[in-house]
């Protein structure tokens, strides 16, 4: 656990450095509010751990890890505007704190900083760009052509959440100079973890207490968002079982790679458990 905290501290330190370098000061303040207001840093940890699992180091992957966290945060700013969510991670969301215009500019600023970190590697840039296309399609689908059954929901979950998770793991493999087979296997692992994460997120929105969750609950139902418990016949218990099945398939994908660091792989195994058991 101490080594895991060292990796997280490495990510946090670099994230602070990037945010502190943002100009002008007004934008830096807004970016800081979004990027440093908490968060589990799951995606950058996936990047670092994936890299170490296949023979790289945390230092090799930290730039890409911070980059994918910034992309994730940029997407959350827009999500909160769409959902009219006033709370994010227990504090005011960007639009609630600064207004709609500054929030959109903050999202742009986060993306700009992120692609600055990817720019040294064309493969990394392409990987994240492809993930953002998938994310955009997912967001558009959610707003205009909502899924009406489980299969359609799963496609949406893959695009809305799985795509960035996939990119996070693939970035780690790229940082370790892995072969295409390894990049793909780690990507599939993370994509399925992301889908499990999204399913569990929907269940928590439906059944959790807002104070425990750190953000408002019941939004999916109120806004007629395509939650797994809204657009399928699954009960929360059955949805949790579906999340578990995705996590199991993630572990199957992880079994296909040649492991250089069993400790790092162990943390990836634990993550697949965490996303289906988390309470917030």
From TrEMBL:
UniProt keywords, alphabetically: Isomerase, Isoprene biosynthesis, Magnesium, Metal-binding, Transferase
Cofactor(s) listed in the protein's UniProt record: Mg(2+)
GO molecular function: isomerase activity; metal ion binding; prenyltransferase activity
GO biological process: isoprenoid biosynthetic process
Recorded superkingdom: Archaea
One Pfam family recorded for the sequence: polyprenyl_synt
Family (UniProt): Belongs to the FPP/GGPP synthase family.
Protein name: Isopentenyl pyrophosphate isomerase
Biological source species: Natronolimnobius baerhuensis
């Amino acid at each position: 656990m101490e080594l895991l905290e060292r990796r997280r501290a490495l990510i946090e330190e670099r994230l602070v450095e990037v945010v502190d370098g943002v100009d002008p000061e007004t934008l830096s303040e807004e970016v800081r509010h979004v990027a440093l207001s908490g968060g589990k840093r799951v995606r950058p940890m996936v990047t670092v751990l994936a890299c170490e699992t296949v023979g790289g180091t945390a230092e090799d992957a930290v730039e890409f890890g911070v980059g994918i966290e910034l992309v994730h945060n940029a997407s959350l700013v827009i999500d909160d505007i769409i959902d009219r969510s006033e709370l994010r991670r227990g504090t005011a969301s960007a639009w609630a704190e600064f207004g709609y215009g500054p929030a959109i500019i903050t999202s742009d600023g986060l993306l700009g900083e992120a692609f600055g970190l990817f720019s040294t590697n064309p493969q990394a840039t392409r990987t994240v760009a492809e993930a953002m296309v998938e994310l955009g399609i997912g967001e558009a689908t959610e707003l205009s052509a909502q899924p009406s059954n489980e299969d359609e929901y799963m496609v949406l979950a893959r695009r809305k959440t799985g795509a960035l998770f996939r990119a996070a793991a693939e970035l780690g493999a790229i940082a370790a100079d892995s072969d295409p087979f390894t990049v793909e296997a780690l990507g599939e692992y993370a994509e399925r973890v992301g889908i499990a994460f999204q399913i569990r997120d929907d269940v928590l929105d439906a059944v959790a207490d807002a104070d425990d969750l750190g953000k408002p609950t019941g939004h999916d139902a109120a806004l007629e968002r395509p939650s797994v418990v809204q657009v399928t016949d699954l009960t929360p218990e059955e949805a949790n079982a579906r999340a578990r099945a995705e996590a199991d398939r993630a572990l199957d994908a992880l079994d296909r790679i040649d492991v250089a660091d069993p400790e790092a792989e162990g943390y990836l195994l634990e993550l697949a458990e965490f996303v289906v058991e988390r309470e917030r």
